[in-house]
Amino acid sequence: MKRSIITAISIGFIAAACLAEIAGEHPVSSPAYGPPPGYRQATASASDGHDFLVAWVDTTRSRGYSYVRIYATRINASGQVLDPLGIRIPTLTTTITTNPTQLNVVYLGNAYLVCWNEGDASVSTSTGEPLVGVRISSQGQLLDSTPRVFAEKARLNTGGVASNGSRAVIAYTTPIAASPRESLMTLILDRDANIVDGPRTIPNPDGTSNETVFAASNGRGFLVVRTFGNVSFTATTALDANGAPLPDAPLIRDTPGPIFGLASDADSYVGLFEAPGKIGAQHFGSSGEILETSLFPLQQILPDYYRHQQSFQGFVFNGDSYLFMDGDPTQKTLGVRRLTRAGQLVGGYIPIAKASGSFSTTLWATTLASNSSSAFAGWVELQARNQIFSGSVIEAPSLAASAPFVIARAAATQIAPDAATSGTNTAIVWNEGDGVYAGRLTLDGQMLDGRGIRISALSPNTSIATQPSIAFDGANYIIAWIENPPNSYDFILKVARLAPGTGAILDPNGIAIYQNAFGAVALSSSPNGTLMAWAVGTNKILATILARDLSHGPAVTVNPLEQIGGGNISAAWNGSEWLLAWIKPVYPPDGGPICDPTPCFEYQTYAARLSSQLTLLDPASIVVSTTAAGSNRPLVASDGDGFLVAWSGYGDYDYTGQGGYLSAVFAQRISRDGTLAAPINGVRLAAGQVRSIAWDGLQYDIAFSARRYPPYSAWSFTSHMATLNVTHVAAHGAIESLAPLTVVTDLSDPEAALIVTGTGRVAIAYTRVASEPEYGDVERVFVSAPHALRGRAAR
Q1: Strand partners for 371
Q2: Would you list the DSSP string of 589-647?
Q3: Of 687, 694, 680, whose CA–CA distance to 737 is shortest?
Q4: 595 DSSP assignment
Q5: What is the mean pLDDT of each run of 10 residues along the chain (795 residues)?
Q6: Which of 653, 685, 692 is nearest to 668 (CA)?
Q7: What is the pLDDT of residues 518-535, one digit of tens each?
Q8: Whole-angstrom Cα distance, residue 53 to residue 114?
Q9: How much is the pLDDT for 678?
Q10: For residues 252 and 261, is the Cβ–Cβ distance under 8 A?
Q11: pLDDT by residue (tens digit) across 605-632?
């Protein structure tokens, strides 16, 4: 009887939803922009004589297996970023171990050339790596859809490529067969990056391996300068305007250390050599002849441990003098110093940026480029939540620097969605780096709140500890989440209300309910109020009922007899009581495998019922599964009578090296009286991770994501795609997976939340890596409804 009543209420509650449904994919909010997550490194830049192009390596921008990408952007002479989300540069390979290094950028005369070593982090690079490149026009158009391969086995240095506007020289080393020595090679390119000469070998005078090679042009010819890692001398080779070698200049004995910069004033050249705490500046003539030598201290003095940071990458001729990057750890600033045309230090240190934290660990990956009248300076800084790639334009000859501006930008990352419906619209909640956000959608998926509504405004270094939860209590959306304040072990449980009709936040920044909460927060509404349940540390699970004004009584303990509690709790209401499901760590009776210094524990699935008045109906807890379960959240839904619990368990991995799934989705029925209606440990439905569960009025819907891991040698972006599916389980009878439907396939492992939009209808909110131009390859939340579901519901 009660089940029939609940089903009738559900059908009446969503009657309006039957008139509209989601067609296609819809974003839950419009994008807001800022620095992307992940890491920036290996920066390089050049100028076309007016504007600048800067390129960098970008890693772990999303949580999927799109680990490494290369981006570039143009910056005009006024410091305006012309490609705000960057130009994504294609790499030669698509394996997840792709490791591009040694970026170089030069202007060929009619386009920029970005080239690099494309390494593979899974294999040794001792035999060299492919040397590849692509062109980008001054208008920002990518001119090569796939990288050009200039050499199959090469070792390039940052600063190893130079152009005079009609020819470009790539200087690199390549191993000599059956010898530890390397051979210096040059390639000559035309303005379209076609190889017109080479590879040509330049003799290696008394040198051994570990050469550092730089190249520069004075607008006519070229100079190639190399130092040798285990001897104190430098070799120079001048090339004519077409890249043909001129007679070698004399060797320089007793140089301070390896070369780290080479530039020209349109006539002669200056090379910078690194020594602990000092710089050696060597002036070369237009044909490589040795001229003046200078030695002076760095502004930045760091211990030997930080010697790799003693000199910053960045050295150009700008206006009427040379500029190189330096830093001041006392003031925590990054700046420039000036050299005369002969390489002599002149003037003082000029700061252009100030670090927000420890100088030695937060500023790096610097680059300089000049258009003759001004210089572009770029650097990476580690701030509270991100690595920020910033820049400044420095005017010549005053060296006045513009205010720093952010170079690498993307849409804000959105993860961990949950969803609920009021019957008149739908609300999605998710996490961003600076708080919990919500967005309302019409029943056909149209955005009502633009960029989204920030429910919590986090202070610096405060983070969201778990997925937020949302429920509709008949009047408002209730949103719950856990915050972790900075420098604190506290995890504060908060709740807030969102008005469905207006989108107003009735409790700005939330109301603190409990301190030291743990794991996921469960919300489940009933006519008597909204149940909220959470874990405390790793011991107890607590629950209370929230009234519509968020007042609540004392919390009850759900698992009073357990010595070790659990977390990641979920809950469902069947019309008269709630069922709560959670995982907890259990040590196997035989001790299990040893995880030093104690045996490993396994996560197992438990449940308990609570009455509408929070009377605990199962003090001993219901053992749902004793098999090894994954540490993610078990999920529960009700058809108005009994319950269905779904969880992910381990033990489904193929260890043969041919690849397999890491986990499988299991489900189990629990009747109204708390008895298990299926064999203990449940029924295996599919391979993957369970993401969401719902009762749609006709059947249960279960969303799960699955990724097959191939043999390591075959790892690639494509092979690591994860698929988000929705399957169905009938209300009664044997548990089986009914016609799984694919929602999305993505590089990340999509998270998801099902939304019941009508009898027999569900939509789904999910994450995926958004590669569209307006997003910038970060994870975003979208909503769609599988067509097959809509077709089934229409019958």
Answers
A1: none
A2: TT--SEETTEEPPEEEEEEEEEETT--BS-TT-EEEEEEEE-SS--EEEESSSSEEEEE
A3: 687
A4: E
A5: 39 44 90 91 94 94 78 96 95 77 95 91 64 97 96 91 97 70 86 94 67 93 84 80 82 75 96 82 91 82 43 85 87 89 93 72 80 94 78 92 94 96 96 93 94 86 81 98 79 95 95 88 96 86 96 93 79 97 76 50 87 95 82 91 91 47 84 88 89 96 82 54 90 85 88 92 94 93 72 30
A6: 685
A7: 888 999 999 999 999 999
A8: 9
A9: 75
A10: no
A11: 999 999 999 999 999 999 998 876 776 7
Q: Amino acid letter at 346? A: V
Instruction: Give the pLDDT confidence of 429-458 residue by residue, as tens digits.
Output: 999 988 899 999 999 999 999 999 999 877
Q: What is residue 17's three-state secondary structure?
A: helix
Taking alpha carbons only, the member of 160, 156, 163, 154 closest to residue 135 is: 163
Q: Which residue type sits at 381?
A: E
Q: What is the DSSP code string of 332-365?
A: TEEEEEEE-TTS-EEEEEEEEEE-SS-HHHHEEE
**Strand arrangement, sheet containing 278-284:** 259-264, 269-275, 278-284, 290-297
Gap between the Cα atoms of 275 and 259, Å rounded:
10
Rounded to 5°, the CA angle 142-389-373 comes to 75
Please give the Cα distance from 757 to 444 (Å, whole number).
9
> Partners of 648 in the beta sheet?
665
- 682 contacts: CB under 8 Å, gap ≥ 6: 624, 625, 645, 647, 666, 667, 668, 735
CA distance 541 to 538: 9
Please state, in angstroms and rounded to a whole number, the distance separating the CA atoms of residues 629 and 598. Answer: 19
pLDDT at 536: 87
Distance in angstroms (rounded) separating the CA atoms of residues 504 and 341: 64
| pLDDT for position 414 | 96
- Token pair in block for residue 15: 């009657």
Tokens at 658, concatenated: 């041919």
C-beta of residue 364 within 8 angstroms of C-beta of residue 311:
no
CA distances from 248 to 205, 214, 244, 463, 627 (A): 10, 15, 12, 60, 73
Chain-centroid distance of CA 169 in Å reads: 35
> Residue 175: what pLDDT?
73
Residue 172 in tokens: 């690199």
How many angstroms separate the CA atoms of 341 and 343, rounded? 6
Angle, alpha carbons 706-470-585 (nearest 5°) = 55
> SS3 of 586, please?
strand
- H or E segment to which residue 568 belongs: strand 567-573
Residue 573 CA to residue 408 CA, distance in Å, equals: 46
Q: Which residue has the tokens 């430098």?
A: 234
Closest CA to 741 of 696, 791, 777: 791
Q: Which residues contact 717 (CB under 8 A, 6 or more apart)?
A: 65, 66, 94, 95, 96, 747
Starting from the edge strand earliest in sequence, which strands make up the sheet with 182-189, in order?
Answer: 98-107, 112-120, 129-136, 148-163, 168-175, 182-189, 195-202
CA-CA-CA-CA torsion sign (651, 653, 655, 656): positive
Q: Are strands 182-189 and 195-202 parallel, antiparallel or unpaired?
A: antiparallel
Q: HSE-up of 219 (CA within 13 Å, CB side)?
A: 9
Question: Residue 72 to residues 49, 138, 211, 291, 294: CA-CA distances in angstroms?
Answer: 17, 12, 28, 37, 35
Instruction: Give pLDDT, residue 3.
Output: 41
491: its two tokens? 């995890």
Report whether the peptide linkage leading into residue 786 is cis, meaning its omega lies within 30 degrees of zero.
Answer: no
Cβ neighbour number for residue 651 with a 10 Å cutoff: 11
Cis peptide before 404 (omega within 30 of 0): no
Helices (H), 575-644: none
The conformation of residue 246, written as its DSSP 8-state character, comes to P
